[in-house]
Specification:
By secondary structure, the chain is an alpha+beta fold. It has 3 domains: 116 residues, Ubiquitin-like (UB roll), CATH 3.10.20; 61 residues, N-terminal domain of TfIIb (Single Sheet); 64 residues, no CATH class.
């Protein structure tokens, strides 16, 4: 792996050839504030918060789009840079309809964090944009474009990772916003409700309904299909209140589909079976696991050959489904095997 040497804020830094200045700084533990950069997405350079000063270069380029070169000398925090960053953040706050205390993204908002880092202490501008109605057409999350900062992370993840392209930046200038084709509600677009845009949104513009802070997270594997996506379940008490992708999982690398992200409410459903039931005199009654397993074994003995059929589940792993069909053919003597992947 070819490496290069550069200097950032007086510190010698080694970086991989091809890395941007922002990536080189982050790898060296040097913080540069940003709102639109994301390691999973191509460089965008929209927010201009990550501007830096490069010796011998004109202007103040965005570090997220500037390739690091050998011998480069970079300064990330000069009085001029600090002033420009504060002005950008103040303008973003002035355009938004923000009320941090009641916002679902409070204490999880990147804009809130960056505002604290760059030293915004007061609201100097009052240029609030016209209020836009919420888009509540999606059954899993809502869009409040009054809080949107046009970082385009939602647009980019929908295009670059999902390949759906359900949304884009529409209109121009002061009227620019995120919208669907024809600026119709999200439910009337080709949106797949995967929630990738919700996961990437740095502010409160895209939020799941009835969001609750989890008291802890449990690392596990999604129970919906045999792919085996890694997830973190947000738990509060004995309830699952949310889910996010596991970035360390080699299977999904932090990405989730609509079922893995929003379909875990069945765990807490009041009609979910939590104890074995056996039908006696036409009624289901609770039983012990020993009674239930004995009843199943007796039924299997009586129904062998073509009288037996096995239906596998898409929520099982591929190995478990293989065992089911092997059991049906080798033990029960039946080729009546089906697999329902229609969840």
């Amino acid at each position: 792996m070819e490496t290069i040497s550069l200097t950032i804020d007086g510190l010698p830094v080694r970086a991989r050839k091809g890395q941007t200045v922002l990536e080189a700084a982050q790898a060296a533990g040097i913080y540069i504030p940003t709102l639109c950069a994301d390691p999973d997405l191509r460089p965008w350079g929209a927010c201009r918060i990550c501007i830096v000063q490069i010796e011998g270069a004109r202007g103040l380029p965005a570090s997220c789009t500037t390739p690091a070169t050998d011998g480069m000398v970079v300064r990330t925090d000069t009085p001029q840079i600090a002033k420009i960053r504060r002005n950008i953040v103040e303008l973003l706050l002035a355009e938004g309809h923000d009320d941090c205390l009641v916002c679902p993204k409070n204490n999880r908002c990147d804009l809130q964090h960056v505002a604290a880092v760059v030293g915004v202490r007061e609201r100097r501008f009052n240029m609030r944009a016209p209020s836009r109605p919420w888009d509540t057409s999606n059954p899993f999350f809502y869009r409040d474009l009054n809080k949107c900062i046009l970082c385009a992370k939602c647009v980019r993840v929908c295009d670059e990772i999902q390949g759906v392209k359900a949304i884009d930046i529409i209109y121009r200038g002061y009227k620019a916003t995120i919208g669907t084709f024809g600026d119709r509600p999200l439910a009337e677009s080709n949106c797949e409700s995967c929630g990738q845009c919700v996961a990437k949104c740095p502010v409160g513009a895209l939020v799941p309904y009835n969001y609750e802070w989890p008291s802890r997270e449990v690392r596990t594997v999604c129970a919906y299909c045999g792919v085996g996506c890694g997830i973190y379940l947000g738990v509060r008490g004995d309830r699952i209140v949310g889910a996010r992708g596991d970035e360390r999982s080699p299977v999904n690398r932090g990405n989730l589909c609509v079922k893995g992200r929003f379909g875990n409410d069945f765990v807490n459903h009041p009609e979910r079976l939590v104890r074995p039931l056996i039908k006696k005199d036409g009624e289901f009654v609770e039983a012990t696991w020993e009674e239930a397993l004995d009843t199943v074994a007796e039924g299997l003995i009586r129904h062998q050959g073509d009288a037996f059929a096995a239906i596998a589940s898409a929520k099982c792993t591929n190995e478990e489904n293989y065992l089911i069909q092997k059991f049906a053919r080798a033990v029960m003597g039946s080729n009546n095997v089906d697999h329902c992947a229609r969840l």
